[in-house]
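Before relying on records like the one below, remember that each one covers exactly one chain. Contacts with other chains, cofactors or solvent are not represented anywhere in the record.
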Amino acid sequence: MAELHERAGYELDLVNHHMNLLSCLTAEEKVAGFPLGLRGRYARIGRTSVTLALPMGRHDIADHPGLTIETVGRLLTRLDRERALLVVPGGVRLLDCDRLEDPAA
């Protein structure tokens, strides 16, 4: 029963985070936060790596925070150019998590 409560609490936290994502963050914060959130989810199931497989395309990534595919592509390219992450086939490699956590830096 405790595991069920823990899981339900975790899911509610995810929904709350997603609501904040849609309403409060800039497009850059949304895109930069996406791989960090994914890294956290992977870590929760015991998968830790600086290279993250993205199990969806840019269109699906754009739909998640309510952005256009062009905006996601432009911002991923910018973060790649700034060496915050590296876009690799099928995913991204996190290079500067501090930069991703604070896109205004």
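The chain has a mean pLDDT of 84.
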